[in-house]
Amino acid sequence: MDSPQNNGQFEFGIYTLGDLAVNSDTGELKNAGDRMKEIIKAAIIADEAGIDVFGVGEHHRLDFVLSSPPVVLAAIAQATSRIRLTSATTVLGTADPVRVFEDFATLDLISDGRAEIIAGRGAYIESFPLFGYELVDYKELFAEKLELMNQLNLSERVTWSGRLRTPLDEAEIAPRPAQPKLPLWVGVGSTAESAALAGKQGAGMALALLGGEPSKYKHLVDCYREAGIAAGYRQEDLRVAITGHCYVAKTTEQALDEFFVGYSTYYSQFMGGKESGKPLTREEFEVIAQFLAVGSPELIAEKIVSQHELFGHSRFMAQMDIGGMPLSQVMNSIELLAKEVAPLVREALKK
After folding, report:
1. What is the pTM of this model?
2. Nearest C-alpha neighbor of 153 from the set 218, 105, 225
3. Residues 6 or more apart from 183 whose CB is under 8 A from it?
4. CATH for the stretch 11-251+291-350
5. Is the CA virtual torsion 303, 309, 310, 314 positive or negative?
6. Which residues of 216-246 are buried (b: 16+ CB within 10 A; e: fewer)?
7. N or C: which end of the chain has fewer CB within 10 A?
8. DSSP for residue 179
9. How many other C-beta atoms lie within 10 A of the C-beta of residue 274?
10. CA distances (Å), 100 to each of 106, 143, 173, 241, in order?
11. Res 274: pLDDT
12. C-beta of residue 225 within 8 angstroms of C-beta of residue 238
């Protein structure tokens, strides 16, 4: 699972879900074309700053701009030179694994071997009726298709059969990626079942920490590694990435002031505020932010190192551009993550 370019060092990534914030004055969504250009610009800045990975999400609804990760990542590949490119996540249960593999293998060739896949069940269910799948098959679809994805990664000709997809008989899977295999991760939220499935398939696990005490997620990492070792994989091949909301500024006070604006908008549009109809107060935000990577470079580095002691992860991926955060602020945060946080963490982990 190690990325060819990381030389075993701790990795830093940026990811975006491409949410379209609502203008509070007009009630209209942000222009999708402008948002897409911001995402590509953020990827260029991340590449130039030395960030290791850039990821784009997948949603199939009008308040998100990203529904086709490999297309967007192919555009980013042409504008960058070294950063690795991943989905975040590919909703595998409602996608054809053969098409997903071929799309990302094509991306891998375009980018000279920089493609990865994070496969997940997805946070929303709109893709099930959209692509003709039954929600009752939610769990089985993902497990079956993840197994097939693993097979596609191993051989250029595949024979496979399952319950929910037509079988393959010596099917030619083309093109093959530039890398020997596409690095495959499984996105995990809060279920031990998904963690165990990732371990069983020998995939990496991208664990989302979106609030609360990190220690409550420790059992998921343990479950993942236990399942992987039981399936015959080596401990060192079972990689963990921690993902979540993050914002870095010169001081923690500045970070809280700036990120509160975007986070509160995002909260009202997609999180608890959407159900309650109540805006997030600054006091409530500061309680939540205690468990997010929001603050000065020194504080963020301290939090990542503390989490590393808990999880033993090798990658941290930050979601910064939520709720209409200005691109200039997102760019500054990316620079600080790459230039100040990353060296502090890597130095601390050497000790």
Report:
1. 0.95
2. 105
3. 1, 3, 86, 116, 117, 204
4. 3.20.20.30
5. positive
6. ebeebbebbbebbeeeebeeeebbbbbbbbb
7. C
8. S
9. 11
10. 10, 15, 11, 22
11. 67
12. yes
Encoded tokens for 110: 């375009």
Contact by Cβ (8 Å): 10, 51: no
Asked whether the beta carbons of 137 and 164 are under 8 A apart, the reply is yes
SS3 314: coil
pLDDT in tens, 284-305: 999 999 999 999 999 999 999 9
Report the distance separating Cα 259 and Cα 15, nearest Å. 16
What is the pLDDT, as a whole number, of residue 175? Answer: 98
- Write down the domain spans for the chain: 11-251+291-350
Q: What is the pLDDT of residue 271?
A: 87
Rama region for 33: left / alpha / beta (φ>0; ψ in -120 to 50; rest): alpha
Sites in the chain below the pLDDT cut of 70: 1-6, 273-274
Contact 7, 286 (CB under 8 A): no
